[in-house]
Amino acid sequence: MTWRLFLALSAAVIVPLPALAEPGLPDAAQVAEALDAHPSVLAARQRVEATRAGAEARAIGPHELTFSGSYVRRDTRIDGGFNEFDTQLSRSVRLPGKARLDSEIGQHQVEAAENMAEDVRHQAALVLAGHWWDWLEAAAAARVDLQAVGNLERSLAAVRRRVELGDAALLDADLAEAALGQARILAEQSAGEALLARGRLETHFPALALPAEAPEVPQPAADGDLLATLRDQVLTNSHEIAAAEAHADGMSAAAERARLERTADPSLGVRLFSERGGEERGAGLVFSIPLGGGHRAALASEAAATASAAAADATLARFTVRETADADLAEATFRISAWHRAREALDAQMSALQRLRRGHDLSEIDLSDLLLGERLTHEAFRTEAVTRAQAQRAITRIRVDSHQLWLAD
Question: Is the pTM of the predicted complex or chain greater than 0.85?
Answer without folding.
Answer: no
